Amino acid sequence: MVPETESIAAARARAASPAPSAETVKRLKNHIGVLSTTALKYLDQQLPWYRSLEPNERAALGLIAQKGISTFVTWYEDPSSIPSWVVTDVFGAAPTELTRSISLQKALGLLRTIVEVVESQVPDIAPEAEQAALREAVLRYSREVAFAAADVYARAAETRGAWDSRLEAHVVDAVMHGEGHDSLSSRLAAIGWKSQSNIRILVGATPGSNSVSFVSAIRRLATRYARDSLVSVLGDRSVLMLSDTKFEEADLGRLARFFGPGPLVYSPLAATVTDMPQAAQAAIAGYAAACAWPQAPNPVGADDLWPERAFNGDPLARTALLERIYRPLQQASNGLLETLSSYLALGHSLEGTARGMFVHANTVRYRLKRVSEVTGWDPLSPRDAFVLQSALVVGRLADSGQ
Predict the structure, then answer these.
(1) Taking the chain, what is the end-to-end CA distance rounded to the nearest angstrom?
(2) Which parts of 302-358 fold into alpha helices (H)?
(3) Coil, strand or helix: which one is 231?
(4) CA 253, 258, 261, 267 torsion: positive or negative?
(5) CA 55/CA 61 separation, integer angstroms
(6) Which of 137, 179, 206, 378 is most buried by its number of CB atoms within 10 A?
(7) What is d(CA 30, CA 24) in angstroms, rounded to the nearest whole number?
(8) What is the pLDDT of residues 190-216, one digit of tens each?
(9) How far apart are the C-alpha atoms of 127 and 21, rounded to whole Å?
(10) pLDDT in tens, 214-230
(11) What distance in Å separates the CA atoms of residue 239 and residue 231, rounded to the nearest whole number?
C-alpha cells in the first residue's frame, strides 16, 4: 500500500515539475554556502527570539537550517523523489534540541524565513525560464519540511507526555512511602514542581470510561486554582496533589465531578514538602474508610473521618483522636471529660447529665460549650458527638495500656 502511494505521488511530481537543467543544479550546489550564510544572518535580523537563545541552541537551529538547504538541493536534483526521509535527514541532526529550544510555531517561522531567503536568491541561481519551477520546488519542499516538523513535535510531545506520567507516578510513590525531604524535593523538582508549602492531596476513584481524558481535564482545572499540580492514576483510584491553592476547602467540590463515583477525600494542608507523606497517608486512609460514613459530604476531609479511619486500623487517626481530643479534655479543668462522658452515656440528655453529676443544667451547657472550644467538635451535633465518643474510646484504651 505505501510503495504504491509513493509511486503515485512521484508520478504527479514528475508531471508537475520538469527536470531542472544540469547548469541550474550546478549553480544551486555552488550557492549552498551562500544560502546557508544568508539564512543565518536573516534569522538573526528578523527573529528576535532567535537572538535570545543560548549559543548552543542557536548552533543547533543553524545546523538544521543548513541541513535543510543542502537536503533541498539533493531533492531538487531529482524532483520525482518523495522526501519521506526528510524527518531523519533534516531534523535528525538535533531533534531534541529543536523541540526543547523553540515551539512548533517558532519552528515554522524559522522555516518560513529560510524559504524567503532561498526565494530571494532564485534570480542569481536559475535562468529566467527556470525561476518559476525553482520557486515552486522551494514551496513544495517547504511543505514537506513543515509536515516533517509537525511530526517531530508530535512525537516529542507524546514521548514527553509518557515520560512526565512516569515521573509523576514515581513522585506519588515516593510521597506514599515517606521518602526523605531531600529525595522528595529532588523528585518534585524533576517534574517542575516549584512550591514548598501549603500542599493538599486528594484521593478519589478513577473514572471507568477514559482515564486519559480525566487526567487532561483535571490538569486544566487545577492550573486555574493551584500553583502546581500533579495527577497520578493508581489503578481504580487517582491521586491529585495541589499546592498554594486559590480556593477554600468548600470549593474543592469543583474537582469532584471529574473523578469516578464514590468518595473524594482531601488531606489536611501539608505545611511543607516534609509533611506531604503524612498528608497523603491520611487521604489514602480516609478514602479506604469513607464507605463507613454513607452520609459524608463529597468531597470530605480526611480529618473528618478520624473515627472510621481509626476503626479501620489507621494509627494516624488513633493518634489524632488521642492527642487532639482526649488529652486536651483530660488536661482541661472544670471536669470537661467527665461531663462529656456522662452526657454521651445518658443519651445526650442535658437534664439527665445534670442530675447524674449533681450540677445545674446550665453548668452542663457551659461545660459542653467548653468541650467544643477545646476540641473543635460540638457535642450537640450528632456527627461531632460520634467523633468525641470515638476519642473517649481510644483514650481509655490508651490509658489502660491497650
Answers:
(1) 75
(2) 306-311, 315-321, 327-331, 336-345, 350-357
(3) strand
(4) negative
(5) 10
(6) 137
(7) 10
(8) 666 777 778 888 999 988 765 567 777
(9) 10
(10) 777 887 887 777 888 88
(11) 6
Distance of CA 222 to the CA centre of its chain: 9
Among the residue ranges 89-98, 277-286, 369-378, the one predicted with the least confidence is 89-98
Cβ atoms of 263 and 204 closer than 8 Å: yes
Look up cell 512548533; give the residue.
Answer: 104
Beta strand pairing call for 300-301 and 265-266: parallel
Given CA atoms 88, 89, 90, 94 in this order, what sign does their dihedral have? Answer: positive
**How many other C-beta atoms can be found within 10 angstroms of the C-beta atom of residue 366?**
14
* Three-state secondary-structure class, residue 311: helix
Quote the crossing angle between the two packed helices 22-30 and 55-77, to the nearest 10°.
Answer: 170
CB atoms within 10 A of CB 67: 17
pTM: 0.60
| Amino acid in the structure at residue 76 | Y
Identify whether the C-beta of residue 15 lies closer than 8 Å to the C-beta of residue 93: no
Lowest mean pLDDT: which of 185-194, 276-285, 378-387?
A: 185-194
Nearest to 262 by CA among 235, 237, 239: 237
Q: Are 169 and 248 in contact (CB under 8 A)?
A: no
